[in-house]
Amino acid sequence: MAKAFPEGFLWGGATAANQLEGGFHEGNKGLNIADVLPGGKERLQVLRNPGFQFEIEEGKSYPNHEAIDFYHRYKEDIALFAEMGFKAFRLSIAWSRIFPNGDELEPNEEGLAFYDKVIDELLKYDIEPVVTISHYEMPLHLVKEYGGWRNREAITFFERYTEAIFTRYQGKVKYWMTFNEINSGLMMPIMGLGFAIKKEEDRYQPTFQAFHHQFVASAKAVKRCHEIMPEAQIGCMIIYAPFYVYDSNPENVMDALEKDERFNYFCTDVQVRGEYPAYIQRYFREHNIELEIEDGDLDIIKEGTVDYISFSYYMSKTEKKVDVNGGQADGNILLGGVKNPFLKASDWGWEIDPVGLRISLNRLYSRYQMPLFIVENGLGAYDKVEEDGSIQDDYRIDYLREHMKQMLEAVEDGVDLMGYTSWGCIDLVSASTGEMSKRYGFIYVDKHDDGSGTLERKRKKSFYWYKDTIAANGANLANQ
C-alpha cells in the first residue's frame, strides 16, 4: 500500500444543485426534472416504470424544492468545507438557472450571478470548483415540449448553455465534466436522458438515440472548453460497478462480460476513444436499433474526446444467468443482479465492497491509461443525534477508511488517481429515493423526510476524521 496520495491530490466533497440548493423558483430559475420528482421510496418506481408525466401532483411532497437551502446558506456551508481542508468541491450548475426554459437565446443573468458568488466563495478558501455541467436537472420545458435528449435540438440548446458558462467562468473553473453518470440512462432515462419510456414502446431505440445526441453534445462541449480555456480539463462521468461472475459456468462468464461492456464501458469507450465499439454495433444489429447519425457526427465525437475519466463508485454487482435452483435472488436494489454471499449491505440494500473500488480503478486504468477521478463514493445511512448533540457515525468512518485504503493500493498498483470527492459531503436529498433520512454527509442538516427541521448544520464525528485524513494526505490510514 502506498504511504500517502500523490502531491496535489484533490480531496473534497461532491453535491448536485437539485439535491442541495433549494430556491427552486428564486432567481428566475425554471423548473427542471428534479422539481417534479416526488419524495419517498416511490420515487425509485417512478424512475423505473414507463409513463411518467413530469407534473407536480397535489398531495405529494417535493423535497428538492427547498432541499437544504444551500441557495441562501452557501457561505456557511463552504466555510465548513474549508474547515475540513477541502482542496476541491464538486458542484453542478442547474441548467434551468442559466436558461429557465432551456431554449432561450440569452442566459439568465440572475442565475449566472449566483454561481459567480458560489465559485468566488470557493476560490476565497483556495477550493477548486469541479463543475458538472448537467446533473439530472434538464429544464422541464425541454423535457415536455421537445422530448428531452430524444430530440436532436437538445444538442443546440446544450451548446448555447455551455458557451454561456464557459465564457462566464473561464479563469475560475479548471475542472469540468459534461454529463453526470451518463450510463445511468440505461436504467433510469428520466433523470439522465430527460424522457420517460412510453408504455407501448421498446426502450432500446430511444435510449441509444438519446445517448448519441449526448455524445455529440459532450464532444462539442469538450472542444469548445479547450478553445475558451486551454488550461482547463474536461472529463466524462459514469457510474462504475465492477461485475463479478457468480461461478465458473462459461455461460455466466459470457453473460457478465456482455453486461459489463454495455453498462461500464460503452459510454466511456465513445467519450474516451471517440468511436462506437464493435460490441455495441453487434448489440444494435441484434436489437434492431438504427441510430440517426448525421454527416459529421462521428467526426465531432472523434475530435471531442475527454481529458480524464470521473466516476461514482458505491457497489459491485454479481451476475448469474444460469440458476440451477430455478430462481434468482435480488442483489443490489439499484443495479440488480444476485446477492454476493461475501458482502454485507447498507440500510438501503447497497452491497459494501471496498476491494471492488481497487478492482474498478485497475480495470479502468488498464483499459484507458487516462487519469481517473473518484467524484462520488460514500455511505447512505440513518444518523442519530445523541442527547449531547453529537452524531457518532463510526460506521461511516469505517466505510470511508476501508475504501481509501484500497485507493492507496491502487495508487501503488500504478493507477493515476487525481482526487476523491466524497458524495453528499453535507446531508442532502437522495436522488434515487428523495429522502433526507438517507444521509451521506460529514455535516448533519436538521431536515427530515416530512419536511420539518431547522436546517441547522452540525459537525458529525466523521467531519473531524476526514479533516485529519486530508491534512495527512491519507498517510494516517495505514495505522487505522
Describe the structure.
One of its GO terms (biological process) is carbohydrate catabolic process. GO terms for molecular function: beta-glucosidase activity. It comes from Oceanobacillus oncorhynchi. This is Aryl-phospho-beta-D-glucosidase BglH. The active site is at 376 (nucleophile). The protein has helices spanning 17-20, 42-48, 70-84, 95-98, 109-124, 140-146, 153-169, 189-193, 204-228, 250-273, 278-286, 297-303, 354-368, 394-413, 461-471; strands at 10-14, 88-92, 128-134, 175-179, 233-239, 243-245, 309-312, 317-319, 372-376, 417-423, 443-445, 457-459. It has 15 helices and twelve strands. By secondary structure, the protein is α/β, with parallel strands linked by helices. Helix 3 packs parallel to helix 5, helix 9 packs across helix 12 (297-303) and helix 13 runs parallel beside helix 14 (394-413). Helices cover 39% and strands 12% of the residues. The chain has one domain (10-479): Glycosidases (TIM Barrel, Alpha-Beta Barrel), CATH 3.20.20.80. The strands form three sheets. It has an eight-stranded parallel barrel, surrounded by five helices. The longest helix has 25 residues, at 204-228.
